[in-house]
Design a protein that fits this description.
- The chain is α/β, with parallel strands linked by helices.
- It contains 4 helices and 8 strands, in the order E-H-E-E-E-E-E-H-E-H-E-H.
- It is globular.
Length: about 120
């Protein structure tokens, strides 16, 4: 099962990049997706504008604010994740409502903290 990182960044000082590193360290497969180009730990960032298909998604972890994410909610729901983690600053009432209607678990938390405490 995979974790899709929405808002992935090649910049190692960004929380999305730190989450990718921690996911890899803990043995979780991740897929970086963003409007940004580049690589994260040797994986090419997939362009969200292309709505890239990803199979076997367990978690989508959000690192994009709602104001910058409008229009891609259907894409995230279409990935059919078991849960969506809204990291601080990425809260999105529209996506949350859609997720709950689709039976997707919604978590308001921090992926880095969850990984650090074994809650992931």
């Amino acid at each position: 099962m995979k974790t899709v990182i929405i808002g992935a960044s090649p910049n190692p000082t960004r929380y999305a990049h730190m989450a990718a590193q921690r996911l890899e360290d803990k043995g979780h497969e991740f897929v970086p997706v963003s409007i940004k180009k580049g690589e994260v730990l040797g994986k090419e960032i997939l362009n969200i504008r292309d709505e890239p298909p990803v199979e076997n998604v367990h978690t989508v972890t959000m690192y994009v604010s709602a104001s910058h994410f409008e229009g891609w909610e259907g894409y995230v729901i279409g990935l059919k994740p078991k849960r969506i983690v809204f990291n601080p600053g990425s809260e999105n009432e529209v996506l949350e409502s859609m997720a709950q209607s689709a039976g997707i678990e919604v978590v308001h938390g921090c992926t880095l903290v969850m990984l650090g405490t074994g809650e992931y």
